[in-house]
Task: structure prediction
Amino acid sequence: MIPRISKKIKAQFSKLVHNPATSGILLIISTIIALLWANAGDGHAYHDFWYKTLLRIGNPGQFFYDVSIHHFVNDFLMAIFFFLIGLEIKREIKAGELSSMKKAAVPIFAAIGGMLIPALLFTAFNYNMESVSGWGVPMATDVAFSLGILALLGSRVPLSLKIFLTAFAIADDIGAVLVIAIFYTDQIVFSEIIVAIAGIALLMGANYAGVRNRNFYYLVGILIVWVAFVYSGVHATIAGILVAFTVPADTKIDTQTYISKTQELVNRLKKLENEDEEGIISVEKHDILMKQKELLLCAYNPLQYKEHFWHPIVNFLIMPIFALANAGVLISGSFSDLIVEPIFLGIFFGLIFGKLVGVFFMTKLAQWLKIGVLPKEINNMHIAGVGLLAGLGFTMSLFIANLAFFSEEHINIAKQSILVASFVAAVSGYLVLRLSGNIKKKA
Result:
């Protein structure tokens, strides 16, 4: 009875973990906790906790780099988040929705529009101001949140729309990574970049040589590539993306070969099934079992294994911690004062209208140019709904805001703006897509 109940609990837990909506709900809860925490009392408790020094790197008496809890979250944990994004990008390019020009054209066009128009709108509202540096904030889309909202709609939206949004979000992530690497890097230490490149070259060589030990990729990725990026001036999270691209993405043997060779080993094992004595197995049986293990390692895909392993850790641990560390906005002044701030106007109109117009227009342009097609079941309302959901910047927008602004006041305004815009995008996108099921696509 107990084992049966245990299996049911395990099955329900697995279903909950793999439901995209669950991670979105957890992010909302983390955001609410962060807001309450940041605004409790005089607000210092929140700031003091996250900016507490964890470790100091440098020479005794002359410390060069203080690592706070906030730094650890944004520089190290987010590197793991970007590592997962890199794995997803590589999978999509190799055998997914970005694997051919015909498949990739429409979501890539949509992503370009969804980045350019918001950036231009923000620049227009903040032209000739110090705050114009935040043009990259409304370019980003939160993959987990947008897919979570889509998951809440269930069968009301076609499966092809979920695939389109995933491909769009992946293309958008590539753009966000390029923006961070190129435009939000103050000073580059080229000697450290050379070290990072050497680490990447070592990993690529290991991939080519057939090294599939995941610990090797993790150790070189962290100790050489990530550490070099920390000191290089380029944001350390870029290391996560680059290391992910070096992970092997092929199996050594095909499934049929694995089945036939495994069957041979199982048959040999059956002949030796009575040879065990008190749990000690024979040398021959040990050799057979080790060969089975080697076969398994040859048959599985390292990239997919790592993606499957890190997905729940990122969604249910790293992202909620990031939200706790970054969404704690000290709410001061009135809402009427906030909505006339150029930063608010740029982020709000960029994420809501910029994303909607950019995604819709560029999707139609790709179809008009006949370089890509959308599935027949996707109608104009679906595209508009995706454009609105793309305005859910949240995680990525908060991350870029920390890099884009130098003033605490500007960062605070940006975070409030992101939360307001993301909320409006989530609600409006959900409502439009809910209504879209009643609209038939025109031929």
